[in-house]
Amino acid sequence: MRDYLIDIVKHTVPLGAFTNLRIDGSDALTEVSATEAERQMVLRGKLHAPVADFKGLFGIPNLPQLNTILNIPEYQDEKATFTVTRQDRDGETQPVAIHLENATGDFKNDFRLMASKIIDSMEPKLKFNVSNWPVEFVPSVAAQQKLKFQTQANPEEKAVTFRIEGGNITAQLGDASSHSGSFTFHTGVDATVKKTIAVPVLYVNSVLALSGDKMIHMGDLGIMISVDSGIGKYDYILPMLTK
Question: Nearest CA to 21 among 11, 3, 82, 55?
Answer without folding.
Answer: 11
